[in-house]
Design goal:
With about 180 residues, the protein is mainly β. The chain has four helices and twelve strands; from the N terminus they run βββββαβααββββαββ. Bound molecules: flavin mononucleotide (FMN).
């Protein structure tokens, strides 16, 4: 069977993406929050996350200076925070103060705080950065993960159902739907 296909010009079309709020801080700029959809798990040993930030963002200078960041995972109920941190700039607004959020202590980092109100906080140290063009890819080695008891199941594992994460596709947020076990035929 032939499937009819249309060829699109080169563009970023992958979906769904995770939505995260990254917290960062430097001596020069203080603490800030930025919403990112271009973020992903890239390596297990050493555990590594990649985040891609446009150099025009205030957060770019902060991560570039401090070489640290925390990936904070929001739940669907926190989508208004996610949007605010994705449209306002830390150049003009103290996002922590404006939203009444708490910059908590990261266990392993010197500068970047955790976003305490989010249940999962992944602390990262930048190991490499690559100027890709419109965005800089920061590779962050995970040094510790703080997890609220509220999203742990009875076996002490992170429950995606309890965490209720946000997926992003086509400029819209989605909650995860039904779960299906992996099947081999
Ligand atoms: C859902 C969503 C996803 C976003 N993803 C990215 C991203 O992956 N990389 C990026 O540089 N900006 C991204 N942005 C834009 C920044 O979050 C936005 O420009 C923010 O205001 C920058 O804040 P800052 O200047 O305080 O760093 C996204 C915004 C939204 C709403």
């Amino acid at each position: 069977m032939t499937i009819s296909k249309t060829i699109l010009k080169p563009q970023t079309s992958m979906f769904p993406l995770p939505v995260v709020v990254v917290s960062c801080a430097s001596e020069e700029h203080g603490a800030n929050l930025i919403t990112l959809a271009w973020a992903g798990t890239l390596c297990s040993i050493p555990p590594t996350i990649g985040i891609s930030i446009n150099p025009l963002r205030h957060s770019h200078a902060i991560v570039d200076q401090s070489k640290e960041f925390v990936v904070n995972l929001p739940s669907v109920s926190q989508q208004d925070i996610v949007t605010f941190c994705g449209v306002e700039s830390g150049r003009n607004t103290d996002k922590f103060a404006h939203l009444g959020l708490t910059a908590g202590k990261a266990e392993t980092l010197k500068y970047a705080p955790i976003l305490a109100e989010f249940a999962i906080n992944i602390e990262c140290v930048v190991t490499r950065q690559v100027d890709l063009g419109s965005h800089t890819l920061f590779l962050g080695e995970i040094k510790a993960t703080q997890v609220s008891d509220s999203v742990l199941d009875k076996d002490g594992k992170i429950s995606t159902r309890l965490a209720d994460p946000i997926a992003y596709a086509g400029s819209r947020y989605y909650a995860l739907g039904d779960a299906y076990p992996l099947r081999r035929n």
